[in-house]
């Protein structure tokens, strides 16, 4: 795995038409126009009749199914996939080996209605990742049909996670997280689970060079309604990828690069042959915890004369207005926040915390500026 090569080539293959968090069908359609039409197909249509596209790369015997934006507001992996597509279309020894050994079928946006509205759910307000058994939605049926038609040897389930997650209960942001889903209530360590674990362990080894201590592992509680658990239950090694937060990267452009590396690392590991014995290293990855807020203002007073100091936690709510994403700061905690961390922290040093309008601090309220005595602090990213 040539990490230096991938970092060197990334800027030249990065899809400039895709930027930020709000990525829709209309965005990727501009990119599809630049790729060979022979590689692109339409698998079907969403609830609101938007096309669900598929792309095919490679001609090898190992079949890998990948899909992104099952949740419409989780777009980082979609950007990274198009960067990978551009790399696949160049002459290079790295992807040559992958495409000679593997055939990839990729669904870049499974939930185009949710992507348009920037919501987790589809247009019928259904979480597609809880619809693997009922198959009540057209998007769920399309993914399952793609699975049945392709009969993959591996599945990559690509998602995005909130900024709250830490890698372990420490001050380490979970910039990326992974899971080899369970396939039964007992969470049995079956061979296909071990294979998925071994691949994740290899990815983790590569990424520790980029984000030391920045990789988390999700809890493997079993739910057959989840797509990853269902495909694992069917005997196919399935990997859950989660794109998280990196310092000051609310547009997730740096995480995009890391996800680009992670996807290619997984494909490279499969192409060269998975050493199943490496699965034990998977358990060295710390389990995710919820230790982060976007901002914590430490040791402040709510009123002059108070002797008790508290912390104020602020979390951004992602709000779409006129097709532009806004990060709206809202108060979520007013208490001492031991064992929690902020992506940004402000030491109030005992000063009184106020809003610019001197209104009362209430949980859930929006707050754009904080006043610490006479110092004004902007709370938007």
From TrEMBL:
Limits of the Peptidase M14 domain: 37-130
InterPro entries noted in UniProt: Peptidase_M14
Origin superkingdom: Bacteria
Protein name: M14 family metallopeptidase
Organism listed in the record: Winogradskyella damuponensis
